[in-house]
Specification:
It is a single chain. The chain has 261 residues and is of the alpha/beta class. The protein has one domain (5-260): 3-Layer(aba) Sandwich (Rossmann fold). Helix content is 27%, strand content 23%. Helix 3 (68-87) packs across helix 4. The chain is globular, with a radius of gyration of 17 Å.
Length: 261
Amino acid sequence: MAEVKAVVLRAAGINCDMETEHALELAGAKAQRIHINRIIEDKTLLDKYQIIVFPGGFSYGDDVAAGKILANQIRHHLYEPIQKFIDDGKLVLGICNGFQVLVKTGILPGNNSTNNQQGITITNNDSGKFEDRWVYLAPQTDKCVFIEPGRQIYLPVAHAEGKIITKDNAALDQLKSEGHVAFKYVDENGNEGAYPLNPNGSMGSIAGLTDTTGRILGLMPHPERFVRPTHHPHWSRLKEKPGSDGITIFNNAVKYIQENF
């Protein structure tokens, strides 16, 4: 069985890199945190990895807009190496700030080098404040390798800019029709609803997106924060030991690489 190697991208203001590294290692990968400047200096560093994760945090203090400065760094210095990484059949995961970065580089929802223009963005929550709560997510696709089709999961969100918007309704319809919607915010029974079920007012209750290959996933909730049963907010009160929903995303990624590389 091939060794799975994952890189967790670091930058100023990123603060979930250690938890993400831990989640990858729990799933069986050999993970390493590397600063973006090291990769800009030596772009061949990416060649030895099969998974790249853009973790959560507040890269560059969310100056200008959440994830925008890091996204600009990638567009100007690393877009082609990351595109090659994708073209080679490898996996990309963006969590919270990392998801914002993927959207603002144009890597999501499209992953074609000629289609890196933004038709969507992620902006301020409708509530006008930082939202820190647990949410239910319903998968909307069976093609994304990170996701277990049909399995609703429970994860925490922690963001002030998590509202996904499209440039127009046609763009939103296109996201849905082309299978880019990975997760939606729902209630415990799988039904969509308004705030606080949808914590940011995201159009179509969208919580995450995938690309056409299903090998790129971006989502606002934090799977790395629920990788052990005791991470569940009510674990001590539940009659049955809760499942660790977040680890499934990392397990599926590692399994895919083991089976395909």
